[in-house]
Prior knowledge:
It is a single chain. The protein has one helix spanning 61-76; strands spanning 2-4, 13-21, 28-37, 44-47, 55-58. By secondary structure, it is of the alpha+beta class.
Amino acid sequence: xxxxxxxxxxxxxxxxxxxxxxxxxxxxxxxxxxxxxxxxxxxxxxxxxxxxxxxxxxxxxxxxxxxxxxxxxxxxxxxxxxxxxxxxxxxxxxxx
Length: 96
């Protein structure tokens, strides 16, 4: 599911919820991925705020979603990381 972030156009930044099933457990873990589109390459670039190393890119949102799942799964093989920060949201600020 891709949901536009507050104050941003859907084409500029999006939020992607990724669910992850831990091996041997039935609980799902969800991560918020911040997505931007590189103006030079046209690639979608995603990262999980506060989750070191959790970033990837893809030519489509579907490819990015799969790439992010792979990266997060790989990072979780060493256990749940200590998150550096918690994603809160975005806000539009008007300036003259």
